[in-house]
Every structure is written in structure tokens, then in C-alpha cells.
Write a structure and sequence with these properties.
alpha+beta, 21 helices
Length: about 650
Amino acid sequence: MSKKNNSRLQIRNMLRFVVQHKKKCAAAGCMLLLGGGSIAVSQLYVPAQTEEETGPVFAALPPEPAETAAAETAQAEPETEAVWQPTPVELNLAHYFPEGADTNDITQSLAGKAFKELMTRDEEWISNIYDYADVTPAQMAGRLGRPVSSVTGKYNPKDERHDKNNPSTWTVNTFKNIRMTVTDGDGHAITPYSNVPDIMSLANLYTYFKGVDDYDLFLSYANELWESSHSYTVSISDLYYCSGCMSDADEKREMEELEREAQEEEAALMSGEEQETGAAAPEGASEENTAPQESVSRVITAKIKTESEPETTAAETAPAETVPESFSPVLAQTAETPFSEEAAAAFGPGVTEAAAPSPEASEASGESTAGADNAAESSGAESSASQESFDAESSAPAAESEQASPSNGTETPKPETRLSDCPGHVDLIIHMKIIGLDEEKNLFTIDETGSSQEALDAEDEWPGWNRYTIASAVQLSNQDWFEKYGLTVSAISTGNPLTPEEINAYMAELPADLSNTRRELIRFALNSVGKVPYYWGGKPSAPDYTSNSFGVFTTADYKGRVLKGLDCSGWINWVYWSVTGRRLPYESTSGLATLGKKIKRNELQPGDIIVRTGTEAHVIMFLGWTPDGKIQCIHESSGPVNNVCVAVRDANWPYYRRLAD
């Protein structure tokens, strides 16, 4: 059978099968059609995928060639650091360093160098003022041109310099009180502080236009402002008498009071109630040659008297002063001065007019202080810091002179008293003025250099002191200088350790019969010179150096010192503890004044201590006598060195104590 006939036969048989089973074949055909149709339709629909399942649709897209190249370049090349540019509200000299200086230490920059020089000058100024407390009343009377009779009282049997049969020797040889007032430029009473950051802020603005890296110009300008903003007068009160201070019972009560104060301080220390570090120093703080002072990062706020504040007279707050006519308020003259767009743009968006004192605020402050200024102008000239002249006839301020007899140009009559009652007293009166930014008569108004016509006419776009430049200087001064620039009082400690040769030279001058304990005390004290920073309230935690960690950074004390150290009484305790192995029972000046044995001035031996209590408390260790009869001592000093040092003092203080044989 041929293939053709065979195919026909297969088709005939298939048709016969379909006819016989037509129902089953029809059902199968429908199923095939439905299945094929479903497959065809499914190919036309693609369901959308959710972002949760696959992420953003564009994330799966391949990057463009240009984007891939940019990403590879960014990974291969690190981001370039922005180049620093001087600004009016940053201490620009902090970015400039002397040749060979460590550029990683901002305190070694030109800004640090200027800060150190100005702060040292600041500390020396106030140190010199407090040194007057060591001058005897007779010596001060001579400086002021007053007769010795003005400080000559009754016979004092407890003063070894008094001869009972020679009234000319009955001079008062120590000041009873040190009465001090400090005022700002407007005559308002303030706490003593350093205005060096204020001065440097003005110098920063001035040199921003005149030469941002000109260190000599910066320093000369700052020194001129310093001179203009510091002044003081020193005088002594008339002789006066108290109700009785010479009896043994009075002396006993005084020592009991000192011991009670010392016990209270020790109890507070042991119970953890001692004053928090960084707070204002209370009265009796044992710190030499200084007074409570705000840290350099203090916040400057406007001082505008309100009607509710009591009136303050010049006699209560300020020494006599003549205000030169040239010191007319620059702010009032320049507040509306046009400011070029180019110069304004240099200050950036961070400076606003609100940072500068407004003319309305100046007027309000001026109304409240006009009486004080007028009174000051009519009462004579104030001494300048550079001349250190004295007002010989000035008397105590009204608020302070209740004990002093009125001065009318004649000697005050001395009341009849028994010799045992009171030999007479005199007070030292100190007036200081420190001018800052937040008073009406401020640094801007006394700046003769920056406000001179020559400076304004120069071709450097210096606009003078207007609202923008003033705002920038205030903003810079308000910054935390320690956090940003590492500049604090501690950064200028000028204490230098003694060499072995220097120590041996001091030791060779000691008396030959001096005990071994005293020699060791002196040697240990001399070895500590320049090695223990001054820190207010600092007390030793152990003898020697190892466990005390002197010089490490710690919380700032009330004056901004951040190096761990000791105060004057803490240093005395530490020296005795380290040498004798025994800790002294008291760690305050009032406590030290009660310890050991009372001795006379002429009985002092190396290792004995001399104590002054009260608001200007201090303690020193006797080293020897100078050829002119002064005391050579070793002590922990707060200014200007902020460290242990060897010094020469008169130290006519009331307490001479012997703590070692």
C-alpha cells in the first residue's frame, strides 16, 4: 500500500472516531480553546511590583556612564578643606604663629602671645595695688605727703617698736582694714575683673581693616586701650579709736573666733558642703594680690539702671575723676553713620544690630549716671595707672567713713582713752576703675586711636565704631575663649622652677643653728617653686607630688583657672604634710592663724608662717630678712605668677606662728 493510501485510511479512521465520540471530542476542543486563550491573554498583562517588594523602581536602573565616572572620582579624591578666611567675629591672630612655634597649640599663636602679655600686665597692675597693704601707715603717709603725726596714736605695749617713754614711736604700724571700691566707666560698683578679652576684641576689629596679621599694630593698639581703661587712687583714713582692743580677753576672743571659723570650714569640707568650684569667691577667700574676678568668658550684658534701683553717688563708688571733653560718646555720634554695602557684607549674616547698644539704651543709662559723673568731674583728677599718683587729701567714701573722723584739713582730736583700750587705727582706702564694654562710658568711647580722623581717613575702609563694628566686637568678647582658643588665666602662669644652684644659694643663707626639720621644710618649699599652679580652694589630697596631679586640667575656679593646684593655705599644709608626715588640723588661713605658737616679728625663723585673715586673707612662709629689713618669703601666689614663688614683702600682718621646732 502506498503512503498516500495509508494517510487517507488514517484520516478516515479518525473521522469515524470523532463521529462516534463527537460529544467527548467537542468538550476536549473547548478546553483546548479556553486554555490557549488564557495563555495568550496572560502574555498581554504584567502586574505592577510594589516598592516594598523591589525598592524604588529607579534603584534598579543602571547608572548612566557619566554618573558612574563621577562616583568613582569622588571616592578616589578626598574632599578639599575650605581655606580659612579672616572674619570680624573671630580672633584672627589665633591663626598666625611665630616662626618655630607649635601650630597645634593655639596658645602659642600670635593671639596667645598678645593675650599673655596683656594678662600679665593686668595681673601685675592689681598685684601692685594690693602690695600697698604691706606698706606701713607711716610709710604711706610719707608717700602721700601727710605728717607722721596723722598716723601716731597711743602707746601699744604689744608693739615691739613702741617705746613707752618716746611718744614719737607710737605710730600705728598696721592697717586695721583695707577698704576697696571698684567701679566701671560710669561709676557703678563692680567686681574686679580682667577686661583683656574686651580690649583684644576691639583690637581684632581694628586690625581686621588695618592689617589682620599685623601683630605690632594689634599689640600697640591694645596697650593704648589698656592704659586708658585702668586707673586707681590710694589713700588712708584719719586716725580713729575703737571701744577697746588691747586686753588679753579681747585677744582670746579673737583667737576663739578664728578657730571657730576654721572648724566650720573644715566641717563643711568634710561633709562635702564646700562651695562649688567656679562660683564667686566668698569673703575670706585666701587669695593673694587679687579680688573676686569673673572668668574671661563672662557674658557681657547692658547695665541700664531702672527706677527701682537705689541711686549711687560718686562719693560712694568712685574716686575723683575728670572726664576729658574728647571722650564724647562715639556711639551716639556714629549710630546712624552710613555703612557701605561692601563693608557690611564682610561681617556676614551672624552679626545683627541687636548686639550693639542702642542710642535709647545709652540715653537711659546716661540719665541715671549724670549726677555721678558731674560729681566726679567737680572733685579733682584721678591718678592714672602709669603715673600711680595719689590723692593725699582724699577721705573715705561716705558709705565707708562712719568710723573715720571727718577730715577738715586739721588733725583730728584724739579722745581720752586708757592705754589698754585702743592705741588707734588707720584704714587703707583703694579705689580702682576698670572700663569695659557694657557701660555708657565704655572702651569704644575712650578709644582715641580708632576714632581719630587719621584712622578714619585712611584708605583701608576702616569705618570707625558704628553699630556693625561694635556688634562684632561684643560678639567676639562674649565667646567662650577657653573652649574656642584655649586662653585662660592659667595659660599665662609665669612660674619657673628654681635651678639646683639657686636652691643651694638660698639654703646657704640659712642660719647655721637651724633645725634639720626647718631646713627640710625650706628645701621642699624651694623645690616647689614654679611647679604648683595656683587654684582657688585647692587643698592637697596627699603628701608629695604623685597623688596630687598638679597641672592637669580640671574644672575652672571662680577666676577661670583650669590647672589643678593649691591655694596659699593649701600649699602651707602640703609642705608641712610632705616633710613631717603629719597633716595640719586646719587648711584655711583662719585656722592656720590659731595653730602652733604665737611669736613676735623679730623672732621669726625660716619655716615660720605669717598670716593675714579677713577679705584679703593670705599666708606666707618666712625665708629670711633682706638688708633693708623686709621679709623674704616663699608662698603660693595668685598674681602675677599664679604659682609658687620667692618674694619680698613688708608683711606687717597680725599673726606670726611657729609650727615646727
